[in-house]
# Entry
Amino acid sequence: MAVEPTQALWRTSSYSGTGKECVEVADVESGTLVRDSKQPELGHLSFTPAEWQPFVSSLRAFSTTV
# Structure
């Protein structure tokens, strides 16, 4: 049974830093969900496990170039 996004256990991403620009993530059976913590009603992005790792790697690469 899949977890509905409204029932998922959301947490602040470790990549959000200490500012007000927070991203929340939730681990669900099908992978990982990501949403804007200030506007969760706008929806979320869904990543399968195969998609999540390249996404996180690209964030790490970007953060070292900024």
User: Anything to note?
Assistant: The chain has a mean pLDDT of 82.
